Amino acid sequence: MAVRVAITGALSMPRKSAAELIETHTNAKFADSVTYDVNYLVASRFDTIKARKAAKIGVAVISEAELMDYIQKGAFPESQKPVRPEFHNPFRIDEITWTETIRPERVCFLEYSDNEGVVTQRFIWLCCKGRGSNGHDYLGAFDNETFKTFRTDRVVRLEEL
Fold first, then answer.
1. Which of 67, 81, 106, 130 fits as disulfide partner to 126, beta carbons 3.0 to 4.6 Å?
2. pLDDT tens, 60-69?
3. Residues 14 and 68 in one domain
4. What are phi and psi of 160, to 5 degrees?
């Protein structure tokens, strides 16, 4: 299990130096953002977006002093990563009328804001557009091998590559 550590807020050293210490003196890898793959968040403040997200998804939040202790010991304890909740979409895909098919699929970069305002970035293969029975417009795309729908009003950025 690879231990991953992110940082939020200002530390007593530059973030680049802290990341280098994490990677060269411990069993952990530095992560730029808080995701379900991160074990620890080093926080000097708890009012940041990263700190709020860590608390929300269950990432262990530690202080700079604890970080330095783990660096001195040469290892972070292997803590459980947060468990990604299983997605249950109450809106069924068969309730979308697909009005445009895109062939060949377009490879795009997508920034998308979920229903809680968390923005994620991903590469998708855009393959169709449609309208849901709920009145919203949707994009249909493959994210890896999974077909997903994205409400167009929640698309922050869509850039064809």
1. 106
2. 999 999 999 9
3. yes
4. -75, 135
